Amino acid sequence: MRVLVAGAGNVGVHVAGELAEDGHEVVVMEQTSSRVAELRTTGETPGVAWVVGDACEVTQLAKAEPQRCDVVVAVTGDDEDNLVISLLAKQEFGVPRVVARVNNPKNEWLFNDSWGVDISVSTPHLLAGMVEEAVSVGHLVRLLSFEHGMARLSEVTLAQDSPAIGQPLVGLGIPRDATVVAVIRQNKVVVPRGDTEFYEGDEVLLLVTGDADESVRRLFIAE
To answer: The pTM is what?
Structure first.
């Protein structure tokens, strides 16, 4: 897979390094030449190709050959730049998948397919979800959203009065728009099967689509 990462801040460098380590072809575009020189010198990201240029300018973005990429990741520290990069990548170069970073949660509503964004990642919202997940029992907590909220990765830690306790997965009647993807029990991951039973304290991870949240909530959370 060929990936173009726009923005060589800490987030961009980390993403690029992990992708390159996993064997992907990674190009990072950064408009500040001194930043590129610094990263080349430190050698933090072996295997990553560097392009100096402003990814918000179509002629400069073309230098990184985004039309050859499977994914473009816009992770600058400016939401306006990330939106422009996403739009150019999708409309001018036909990139199949565009992932964009949301710096200000108030701007999250803009990060949709109108701007060429396939997946948006809001760090503040993600952190809030993780904090909630760590301390909440008996609440359905949304951890991640995909496809502009059409699919959600949610978690619920089963309280003592959860109606799911003692029930096998096959007998719960999980709606078609939801899937139990994993159960974390005593720091171990249980791959759920039809006969998997639920216990107090289980952390249940679910992939929920459509309007299934309320149905899922009734199955795992007492009224």
So the answer is: 0.67
